[in-house]
């Protein structure tokens, strides 16, 4: 049994990032057409879209400021004109910043995390869910983090943004469930990406020893979970927060 996303269109925000580009490639490999979102890195986005097109799927690179509703609406219109309606939305983009203690973290970092985690989720829902409701189907997938359950030192702004995102997704799941739209979150651990492979930094004894599987996961592990949630195999899963971290965090009942 395979994951068949043929005939569907996916949007991945932050698709030029370390995890985002593997998600885009994996969704395309499962048969989906893909809108490759970027904020500033147009060249990398277009290269990824060209790669997906060369593999036989339709793809387009699209720019948007994910913290602004009007920018996301303009992106939606471009995708609609070139690929048609969006069936799968993956909210992966997040603003990067320097982590430090609560007492030292600048106020603007809390604001940036709210805007890129909470408001991005709200804006994407406003832009894409109404058409999903009309079709009676759709997938909203947010990329959260294991940090939301850890609360380690220096994580406050990131955790605040991602826990706010979690609240939006859980409420949205209840609101749009009657329309057969699923809303779920994937929560990566500290994940091995292309950067680690290039730099030879895949191993981290301090982290690995606390993971039940005794290793870090990979970008492909995250992308596989996203593809599963996007597929018909996950049609009765909604409102879930799914850690993909080798058991490093375990939600309790």
UniProtKB/TrEMBL annotation:
Gene Ontology BP term (one): bile acid metabolic process
Biased composition (Basic and acidic residues): 193-208
Region (Disordered): 192-211
Pfam families per record: adh_short_C2 (PF13561)
Keywords, in A-Z order: Oxidoreductase
Keyword Oxidoreductase tagged: yes
InterPro entries: NAD(P)-bd_dom_sf, SDR_fam
GO MF terms held by the record: oxidoreductase activity
Family the UniProt entry places it in: Belongs to the short-chain dehydrogenases/reductases (SDR) family.
Descriptive protein name: SDR family oxidoreductase
